[in-house]
Amino acid sequence: MKTVWALLCALAVAPAARAQGANSEIAAVRHSPYGEAPAWHGEKPPRPVAGPVEILKTAEIRPGMKGVAWTVFQGAQPEAVPVEIIGLWKNAWGPRQDVILAKLGGKAAQTNVAGGMSGSPVYVDGKLAGAIALRISVFSPDAICGITPIEQMLEISAIDASRPMNPKTPQTAAARTELAAPASVLGGGVRLVPIETPLALAGFHESTLREFQPFFEQMGVAAVHGGAAGAVYDTRPAPGWQKALQPGEAIAGVLVSGDMTVTGLGTVTYNDGKRVLGFGHSFFNLGPVDMPMAKGEVLMVLSSQFQPNKFANMTEIVGALRQDRHSGIMGELGATAATIPVSLKVRTQPLPGGPVEEKTYRYNVFIHPRWTPFLMMLTTHNTLQDLNSSAADEATYRLEGAIDCEGLEPLKLSTMVPSGAGPAPAPMQLAAWWADKFNRLFQNPQEEPRVKRVEAVLEMRPRRLETAIESAWLEKGEAAPGEEVAARITLRPWRGERQTREFRFRVPGNLARGEYRILVSNAAVLNRPQAMAAMASHPLSLAQTASLLRQERSNDRLYISLLTSRPTVYREDQALRDVPPSVLAVMQNPRSPGRALATPETVLPLGEMPLDSLVTGSAVLRLKVQ
After folding, report:
1. Does domain 368-461 have CATH number 3.30.1490?
2. How far is residue 48 from each of residues 71, 169, 269, 357, measured CA to CA in Å?
C-alpha cells in the first residue's frame, strides 16, 4: 500500500515539478532512457514560410540527427521546438509506411506531445522531414513523438476520389480497427498512437457533450469544450487568406460554424502558396471531402503525462479541405466549401399562459452523407437544452421544419414529442427524428441531395400534451353510398378529464354493399405499412425518398379511415389501393421487376381532426353500407 501511495504522490507532484522549470527552455527529463531533452546550440532557426522547400527523405534519416519543430503554444505565432531523431520505425503503419521516432525538447518537454500538435513540421538541416503525428500513449516521462514522413503526405492527391475502408463516422463507429495502433517496438506494452485531434464544440451545453459522449467515444474522437473568436456565418474565405496557414500555425477543419461551432484543430505542415498539408494522420479518414478550412488561435497548452491538449479558438475561414487521408489532410487556400445554412427558431413559454420568448440560431453544417445527419441531431439537441433548463418536468416539444433541396419541392415536416412519452428524453427523441430525415435523404444510392437551406421552428410548452383515443361510436350503423355519417369519440388528455368530440365523414359514393370497418387512429398506425414497404423495396431514388417523407402523417392529428377487404400494394413510393386478386398475383410474381409489399386491406382516408397534442391509440367501428 505504501508503494502505491508513493507512486500516486509522485504522479501528482510531477506536473508541479515541470511547472517550476517553465521559464527555462531546457527541461531535464527524469529517469529518461534517452538522456536529457534536446536543447538549442547556437542561434534559433528562422521561422518557416510558405513556398517550395527541400525534402529530407527517409533514406537519409540517421539516429542522433538534430532538428527543429514548429508549433503554436499560445496565440497564432508558432514557436521553435528542438528535436532529436531516435531512429526510423520501418513499416510501422503497413508496407512502406515508415514512422520517424524523435524526442522533443524546449516547451514540448514540459507540455508533452499535446493534442493539436498533429502536423507540426519537423526540419533537419533546413530540410522538411515530416509532421509530428503520434505520441506514446500514457504516462511517459519523455516527449517522444512519431513523425509522418513528408514523402507520404505529398502523395495525397487533390483528385483522388477513392474512399477509405474505415472512415470515422457516427454510423460506422462500431467497426473501428484503425484506432488500435500497431504494437510498438519499444515493448513493455507501450505503444505509439495517433495524437488526438481535439473536436472542439463552442456554444454547446455541458449536458449535450455528456449525452453525446458515447457517440464520440465510439468514433475515437475526443470531444471537448472549445471556442471561436466570433460567430462565423460566411463560409467564404476571409480577406487575407493568401497569407494564411503558414507552416507551424494552427489549422482547423470546420464541421459547424455560426452560433454553434464544431472544429478539429491541428497544425500546418506544408504550404506551397495554394495547397496546404497538415495533421500527419487522418482527421476522420473520409477520403475526398469539401469542408471549410480555418485558422486557429491557441489559448494555452495543458501540460500532462496522461492527456496533454491545446485549448484553441477557430478564427477565420480561409479555404476548404479537399482530402482526409491516412497520412494527413490536404486543403486549398481561397476555395469555398459548400455547406448547409440552417436557421433554427426557438420559441418557449416558461409559464402556462405567460409570454412567449423567441430566439433564432444561425449556423452552417458540413455536407457529408454520414456526418450531416449527426450534426443536425447534435445542434438541434443543443438548442433544446436552453428550453429544458427553464421548462417544467412535464413539457411538450414540437418541431416544424422545411428542407429545401435543389430540383425538389421543399419538404415540410413536423412532429410533437411530450416528456416521458418514450424510452429516451424528449429532446433526444426530437433531435433523432430530425436527423432521420436527413439520413434517409443522404443515404439514397442514386443521387446525392443538394440541400440549399434548412429552416425549422422548435417550440416548447410547459405541459405534457398527450391525448389517448379511448372509444368511438357511430350515430347509426347503416348508411348508403354518398351519405354523411355522424360519429363520436372519447378522448383522454394526459391527467385531464375525458372529452367527447363529434366528427362526420361521407361514405364513398362508389362503395359496394357490404360490411366495412371504420378506423379511428393516430398517425403511427397509418405510417407503419408504407415505412415497412420502403425498407423492403430496392434502393429508392432521391425523389422517391422525398415523396415518402411528404406522405408521412403528422402525429398531432386524429385520422378517420375506411378499411376494405381488398389488398393494397406498396411499391417504392406508391400505394396502389384496392388491387384485384389477379393483378396482385402478377405483381407478386418473382419474375416481376422490382419488389412490392402487400397488405390484406386497403385504407381509404375519410378525414382528419387536428388536436394540437400527441395522439395515441386507435378504435375500430363497424358500418353496413346498403
Report:
1. yes
2. 11, 35, 10, 52
